Amino acid sequence: MSYIVVDIESDGPIPGDYSMISFGAVIVNDKLDKTFYGKLKPISDKFDPQALAISGFDRETTLEFDDPKTVMLNFEEWIKENSKGRPIFISDNNGFDWMFICWYFHHFLNRNPFGYSSRRIGDLYCGLVNDTFAQWKHLRKTEHTHNPVDDAMGNAEALLHMKNEMQLKIDLK
């Protein structure tokens, strides 16, 4: 199985009513050399300007982004080409990131290559240090910029640190 760290940016709090604007993904391996970046045209007229501002894009720019179905097909193909065995979705905030990725896969493709579950990096760290309040983001090397590839990369670096320096038992094929 392959762990794929995903980070998304959106223009609101939930998929369907609002849109996923962009997302990045990184295959977790020792090189962190396999990444994906998608920019998606909004699917709704509804958007929260404050949420959109976090992405660094304005509404007019996002209207020129790629067709969401095409992006999701390309992401599915990238997953098939770059992962070994079952892909495992993992993120910083999987309640948010997973919600959008899962909804977009099912809405546009009627399937989700990740299946029906995801993992949260913070929960793994809390378990490693036996502290449900432990903070893990200091393990990132790449700056958290809200570019989803940068953010996914930093989260993948943290996961590798947990494996290599803290003996997290995880199979990264």
UniProtKB/TrEMBL annotation:
Residue ranges constituting the Exonuclease domain according to the UniProt record: 2-168
Molecular functions (GO terms): exonuclease activity
Signal peptide residue numbers: none
Alphabetic keyword roster: Exonuclease, Hydrolase, Nuclease
Gene3D superfamilies cross-referenced by the UniProt entry: Ribonuclease H-like superfamily/Ribonuclease H (3.30.420.10)
Name used for this protein in its record: Exonuclease domain-containing protein
